[in-house]
Amino acid sequence: MSNSLISFNTVFPMAFVIVLAASLLAYFVYREFQRKLKFLTWRVIASSVVVTSLLGLLLNPAYQAVKKSNTVLLLTKGYLQTKVDSLVLKHPELKIIRTKEAAYYSNSSILKSWHDLSNENILCVIGQGIPSHALAAFHHTTLGFIPASLPEGVTRLIIPNDIYVNARTSLHGTFNALGKMNLKLIGPGGDEDSTTLGKGEASFSLSFSPKQSGNFIYSLVAENEHGSTSIERLPIVVLPERQLRLLFIQKFPTAEVRYLKNFLSGKNNQVGVRYQVSKSNFTYEYANMPRFRIDHLTAGLLNSFDLLFIDQKSYDDLSTFEKTDLKKSINNGLGIILLLNDPKDKLLTGFFPVKSKPFSADTAHLRLSSRSYVLPSLPIELRNVPSLRVVTRNKSRVLSGYVYSGLGKIGIQFIQETFRLVVEGNTDDYASLWVTLIGNTARTKGSNFKLRLITPFPYYANEPIEIEAISSGLQPFLVADSARIPMKENALVDDYWTGESWAGQSNWHQLSIRQDSTQLHYFVSDTSEWKSLKISNQIKDNRVSQNFSNADPKKVTQHVQVPAVLFYFLFLFSSAFLWLVPKI
Known about the structure:
The protein is an alpha/beta fold.
């Protein structure tokens, strides 16, 4: 349906129906002119009515009508009475309904079920709003919303989709505080990170480096200036480290690459290194992989690796064909990390699409898991754009990250001489600088399916959780714990499937696809947890329209379907007339 005076609801393309009707009408009129019979004008009109009635049956037209109705003001938990009073004063004929959790209001009735709203004309919702799963059950084009104030606590939380062992990971969000607040992240091994927030809604970022794979429960602890604390259970799924095939192409050997190669090979990754001895001679190093020559970077060779490291001088020495194959391989999924040694390296401007500018400092202050460091860094500053996925940041300055390029990714690392951390024995901090960047930039593991939860965290028992699956031409056989979830393919987008699951109890749950090993673990929280985050998500979902001042609470605009029987009778009478004309 549309908001126009006349709308159509057809299963066929509009253009196809109109062209077909015009062709039929032209043919019928032509035939009538060929027939030597009386009543030519009436026969042409009858032919037009026949085609019009067929057109009406195919297009299912509807017209816009205005009807009088009792308009509802829905009060939900946390509503402001002053807002309600002003609306009631302006529209005294409003019918007032409140939810069971909402405070009492005079002359209001209690809503028994969210399904009862589907038959009501809601002028406005006031308070914390309607739950997301109930919003999907009805649609109101004139729905207004006056939100309640955000509660104290976490109002936004971003948890990375893929968290790997030894990879430094950051949680981002916002916290609404009534006063000075200390926020702390505690993992299975103890304190991970902390930050201090001021009064009001403020952004926060907390980092951690998991040491083992599996499903873990972290704690997010908020302590105010009076010593009062609140603790939220934070579920974290840690994936095992990926075993990658890595290739280093370097003009001259450096301590940075030597330590990085040893670190990666110690993690059972397959590593190949090529140094240039002369114009046409190379020397090679291999770890966890058979020896072979790498004289030319062909598409076949590059497609056998997950990630390529290359410096400026090595790239300059590549032939035109090698450079072309390299760019094609990146578009086809190869990851590449640029080994930058000079701020004037053209690799950054030639490969990396994010604009950069000179930075005043050539060092970076970093706070990692064990202590703080001051390391050399290239005096370059990147624009913080949405396409840039930041891995390491120093305040507002990006020190490492990656961007997508076709199916592949391009990564950068501005921090220099990171091997100092290994020399000092701080291997965990060294890993936090490289593992996340390498894991995210490397070629994405191929799979027939990709699962994702559409419903934002947190999840609760007996509430629906929306699931999406992207497949490679197969219908997903999705199982939640032990129950099969029916999946529906999008009518417009091939291989995009959606479904809905209902978790029965608070605990870890698993989604799996029977056709392969694709799995997704998620945690269902207790209803007493993450209340502020749930309310914040609910308020965001209810922000449909806040402009209801021009709405007429006595009138409801709706589209009324033209009865199909009208077109049947028109078709019948017109056809009967055309049939009778030769007999008159």
